[in-house]
Amino acid sequence: MSADKLVVGLAGMPGSGKSVVVETAMEAGYAVVVMGDVVRNETRKRELELNPENIGRVMLDLRAVEGASVIADRCVLEIEHAPGAKVIVDGLRSLSEADVFRARFPRFILVAVHSSPETRFSRLYRRRRSDDPDGWEVFHERDMRELSVGLGSVIAMAEYLVVNENSRDDLKAKVRDVLRRIEARWMK
Question: pTM, whole model, 2 decimals?
Answer without folding.
Answer: 0.90
